[in-house]
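Below is a concrete protein record.
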Amino acid sequence: MLVGAMVGIASSLLGTFLVLRGNSMLSDAISHSIVLGIVVVWMLTHHQSGPVQLVGAALTGLLTVFLTELLASSRRMKQDAAIGLVFPALFSIGVLLLNVYAHDVHIDTHTVLLGEIGFVWLDTVSVLGYHVPQALVSMSIMLTLNLLFIALFFKELKLSTFDPALAKALGFAPGVMFYALLMLTSSTAVAAFDAVGAVLFIAFAIVPPAAAYLLTDRLWLMLVLGAVISVAASISGYFIAVHWDVSIGGTMAMMTGAFLLLAFIAGPRYGVVSQRLRRQRARGLADVSESALY
């Protein structure tokens, strides 16, 4: 539950800005294309984990975004089509290299995509004399980095997200902020894939921020609500998975969708119920005003 919650918080913090920018599917593209970075780094260094893998995956994520922006800037295709062209190509190259050159190495595409959060306690490291899951250590580092990045550059991120032209005029370098955000997204995806897989990372990066977007118009509150929804999905998903004897990661992802559905139906401002009540109230006031005229 703790690993899932930390992955959820770290992912939703960055995903909030991707959702607001309309670039949420870049998290999907990055989480798949990092397979190429992982394999290439292994071919060059024979390291399956560690800082060098984070750097390689982050660079592959940036390559994904660069190629996507390059194709979209040609104006011959829209950005969603460019994403759909670039990340399957990079992912397939990574899978081919994996099968040709690293078929006897413990790097599995199924693990990268789906992970198995129920086994995180088997891979531990010693911290101050205690055996701690390695996933917990790596996600603690990424969560700290993401929090520091957002805290230090909150004003720049906010302005470059809502008004890139003004941010550029004020010298805030929105392009640099965007690529720094995506580099952290790539690093978070790599830190998370060994424990929870790319699919759960995508769910946490997109769904909790989308649900929070239905609940508030304030950016700081959206960040907080996204984190709270991620923690709630991790805890409830774990207990439901244990009760039903099903995939823990899959149930956590399902619960993010359940919270999104709840926000869509019962949100205080943008929920279906509240909007219908406001329309009925407005219609009633209009009827009263019309009868008063007569």
Q: What stands out?
A: The mean pLDDT is 86. The first strand starts at residue 124 and ends at 127.
